[in-house]
Design brief:
The complex is a heterodimer of chains A (64) and B (271).
Chain A (H helix, E strand, L loop, with lengths): L1 E3 L2 E3 L6 H6 L8 E5 L2 E2 L15 E6 L5
Parallel strand pairs in A: 1-5
Antiparallel strand pairs in A: 1-2, 3-4, 3-5
Chain B lengths: L4 H6 L1 H4 L5 H9 L2 E5 L3 H13 L3 E5 L24 H12 L4 E5 L8 H5 L4 E4 L4 H14 L3 E7 L2 E7 L7 H5 L18 H20 L8 E6 L4 E6 L23 H4 L7
Parallel strand pairs in B: 1-2, 1-4, 2-3, 4-5
Antiparallel strand pairs in B: 5-6, 6-7, 7-8
The chains are: A mainly beta (64), B alpha/beta (271).
Chain lengths: 64, 271
Amino acid sequence: MVKINGNELDVSGKTIAQYLSETNYSTARIAVERNGEIVPKSQYDAVVLEDSDTVEIVSFVGGG
Amino acid sequence: MVLGQEQAQRYARHFVLKEIGVSGQKKLLQSGVLVIGAGALGSAAIIYLAAAGVGTIGIADYDKVEISNLQRQVIHKTGRTGMKKTVSAELSVKELNPDINVRLHNEKITPDNITDIIAMYDFVIDCTDRFETKFLINDACVLAKKPYSHAGVVRFEGQAITYVPKKGPCLRCLLGSVPPPQETMTCSQAGVLGAVTGIVGSVQALEAVKYLIGAGDLLTGRVFTIDGLSMVSKVTAIPHSDPDCAVCGNAPSILSLNNNREEYEVKSCSF
């Protein structure tokens, strides 16, 4: 199980890009952190989620 | 510096805070903060900085007050439509606290002028409404080693971070680059509630005050988010910068604003 924003999800084995494509996140407006480190956008295709990973996804908006 | 009798009364509630006290108040009065954008976030940020007695407040904006601004931009007033936002904001600041030295920057913030402008201040607050400008401010502050508060709001949502050099990620560490127009909604499609901008703009003023007096924990390495509809607010720890960040990483490719100016040109009104 992978903990994403506090929820335990059965998504281990998927890449971050695969997980994001199944959600409503706008990839250009999010920051993804895995186990305390920022995952650069260029790595979304390469990083595979593993059991006991902790992931935080934060969305940003641009208005003011 | 010696505080006058009226100042002693005005800031009495600060003096009893152990984090501020008389010495902290003097620090605030001797500090300068630049607010870029006298819109919705700026309304809250500027007015709370003025109330707190931040001695010099810079206000940068090139827009004029419109009636459609007033459901959220509460520093402006109905009778001031057509007036420059900087001038209107200064009137409100002076009405609240005549102690404050207000410096107006009635110009668009660009790669050519931003470095000289931010150099005049101790702390910068980004209250602009476009990602392109937010990245310009981020990169300028990173290159100048200037601490600043980033925030954004749309609809009922908002976020804020505080960048302090070498102490955590910058906006570019988190997002990489300006989101393309198709990833963002246009001004007319989106909308925003004033109370939400008030919360987030107040967070920015709070961060500036904390930075200036050296109190508490900043939103450095942490992202504050709020969803006003569900009333869920969170602080997510993202403590480490991206070592490959194009502006603050180990081998940055953005070495000057000039060599990246295309990214700062507004492609759309993004939310």
